[in-house]
Write a structure and sequence with these properties.
The protein has helices spanning 12-22, 61-77, 106-117, 148-156, 172-182, 225-236, 255-260, 281-293, and strands at 3-7, 25-26, 29-33, 39-43, 51-55, 82-86, 120-124, 141-145, 162-166, 186-188, 191-195, 198-201, 213-221, 243-249, 264-268, 276-278. It is an alpha/beta fold. The structure holds ribose-5-phosphate.
Length: 294
């Protein structure tokens, strides 16, 4: 099946790498705002009977959602054979349960809307905590790839004594896999969150690893408070200068500057940022090639 790549992200470097690794045609889309702020969009390429890969980086989901859904519906009306949405960061996965009566379980609602507008979804390490797979909430063909191998390859290239630290129980899935692949020891802490900016983590047991460089690994860095609290614990233990690795560096407000004062900070190019140092294009391209041949 012929395929076409449409980029609506603000991550042109990753889009360019993906498109060239997939060796497919780039499509054209015209977008503008009417004076009242409503959106006008027009797909200028012929998508009839083609698989369309729509690359849209949803790390700031709310302002983009309607236009994205509308593109999905337009592609269907134009006769696209398959609409595959690629968003390296999949938002709204953390509200996966109603903690208080009346709360929106936004993960389910977000999934329902995307599933109406797209046939497939490719994302990186979605925050699967109480859900075990995307299929529990998405009815489209959802595929998740992992940054683990890219992170492990990066760590193997460093000639240092290192110990991986996962700041909370949810991080164990990523941290243990990276530790196995990079042949490094690891430790998982316990986290308590009493507010958006109020986080504390348990004391690590690092007596046997005092000279090891701590490598903090987590899927999402948002307010940065999880990592800051972990760094505080490590400094109480007198550990060497830490390296923080985040798959998705969202860095809300002053999170990045606060962290960069205390540690080296590295992220994948899931979300475009100065800290990007681990490339996800190969892992995404390989999954997309699979989906195109299905
Ligand atoms: C949640 O459990 C995630 O894995 C991250 O630990 C969390 O999203 C980090 O958030 P923040 O940077 O706001 O502490």
């Amino acid at each position: 099946m012929d395929a076409i790549f449409l980029d609506v992200s603000d991550n042109p470097l990753l889009a360019e790498k993906l498109c060239s690794q997939l060796s497919i045609e780039t499509g054209k889309l015209e977008t503008r705002r009417f004076p009242d702020g409503e959106i006008y969009q027009r797909i200028l390429s012929d998508v009839t009977d083609k698989a369309v890969i729509l690359f849209a980086d949803l790390y700031q989901p709310d302002p983009q959602l309607f236009s994205l859904l509308s593109i999905g519906h337009t592609l269907q009306e134009m006769g696209a054979a398959k609409r595959i949405l690629v968003t390296p960061y999949l938002p709204y996965m953390r509200q996966d349960i109603q903690f208080n009566p009346g709360e929106s379980v936004t993960s389910r609602h977000f999934a329902r809307h995307l599933s109406l507008a797209f046939d497939g979804l490719v994302t990186v390490d979605p925050h699967l905590h109480r859900y075990h797979s995307l299929d529990e909430i998405y009815t489209l063909n959802g595929r998740s790839v992992s940054a683990q191998s890219a992170i492990a390859a990066f760590l193997r290239s460093r000639n240092e004594k290192m110990i991986l630290i996962g700041p909370d129980e949810e991080s164990e899935q990523w941290v243990s896999a990276v530790a196995r692949a990079a042949d490094l020891p690891y430790q998982i802490l316990l986290k308590e969150r009493s507010g958006d900016l109020d986080v504390s983590v348990s004391k690590p047991e690092l007596d046997a690893f005092k000279s090891y460089r701590p490598i903090l690994v987590d899927d999402i860095i948002s307010s940065g408070r999880t990592m800051l609290s972990t760094l505080e614990r490590l400094s109480q233990e007198g550990m060497p200068h830490a390296l923080i690795i985040g798959v998705h560096g969202l860095f809300a407000a002053d999170a990045y500057s606060l962290l960069a004062e205390k540690a080296e900070v590295l992220t994948t190019n899931s979300v475009p940022h100065a800290s990007n140092g681990i490339d996800l294009s190969a892992v995404l391209a390989s999954e997309l090639s699979d989906m195109l041949t299905d």
